[in-house]
Amino acid sequence: MPEYPGQTIEPAVRVEHLTRVYGAGRNQVTALAGINVGFDRGTFTAVMGPSGSGKSTLLQTAAGLDRPTSGRVVIGGTDLSGLSETRLTELRRTRIGFVFQAFNLIGALTVEENIVLPLRLAGVRPDRAWLTQVVERVGLTDRLHHRPAALSGGQQQRVAIARALATRPEVIFSDEPTGALDSRTAAQVLTLLRAVVDEHGLTVVMVTHDPIAASYADRVLVLADGAIVADLPQLGAGGIAEHLASLDRRVLR
Ligand SMILES: Nc1ncnc2c1ncn2[C@@H]1O[C@H](COP(=O)(O)OP(=O)(O)OP(=O)(O)O)[C@@H](O)[C@H]1O
Asked: What is d(CA 53, CA 227) in angstroms, rounded to the nearest whole number?
């Protein structure tokens, strides 16, 4: 559904009335309390908010890694709620890229084998021209035959980004991609994510606690208690930090 009158372009990801409740009775926790949001194609969004505000739950449910309690997620026009587990797995493998704080590379495989793994799992023939472009973009052309253990943290995260890009996904979901990196390496990884949005029109949704990381995005969503409490344009790292501090005083106690 269009979010406003006259809107005709389907966002890359659309989330409607998304609710996720964990547990039952006295142990019940509402991690997401009916979220409505769209992520337009070719945009980079940072998701922020205090610990326990629902950021990871939003990412996991939007990415089809977890089923919502109610509400729905539509990726590129496909409603995930109508999909069987098998179809959902297929969609995750072919249309979604993931980049996590832990690089999650397979130590026994080379860099190249790690990058093409999602394609092999999905039984999809690699698009060699695209893969060459991706490997060049992430600066790994001379590392393809190394094992992950022989690479630095920043290089390993770049392998994870190349792996996420291998299938030319409609969206990349990323949870704290720079959480394990020093600030210089983090800047390289964020510049790379920014570039895949600007140069290839990909859509990136990234959870982060860091206003500097968020300053690479076009838009900053702030969650509190499972709801969106701010939807901001890019304000720069200082502006984001200031806004979070003012929300902290007003909304976040
Ligand atoms: N599997 C689970 N079982 C029960 N409660 C959960 C589960 N996963 C998350 N929660 C709860 O849901 C709420 C939101 O958690 P979530 O991990 O999404 O927050 P977050 O904003 O990502 O936090 P952080 O910044 O600390 O990673 C929290 O109260 C959390 O304790």
From this structure: 8
Q: Tell whether ligand 1 has an atom less than 6 A from the beta carbon of residue 35.
A: no
Distance 229 CA to ligand 1 centre (A): 17
What's the pTM value of the predicted model, to 2 decimals?
A: 0.92
Question: What interface predicted TM-score (ipTM) does this complex get?
Answer: 0.97
Closest CA to 214 of 251, 244, 245: 244
Q: What angle do CA 234, 166, 169 make, to 5 degrees?
A: 50
How far apart are the C-alpha atoms of 188 and 10, rounded to whole Å? Answer: 31
Ligand 1 pocket check for 28: Cβ under 6 Å: no
Q: Which CATH class is domain 13-234?
A: alpha beta
49 lines ligand 1 (CB under 6 A): yes
pLDDT tens digit string along 67-122? 999 999 999 999 999 899 999 999 998 999 999 988 899 999 999 999 999 899 88
Determine the distance separating the centroid of ligand 1 and the alpha carbon of 223, expressed in angstroms: 12
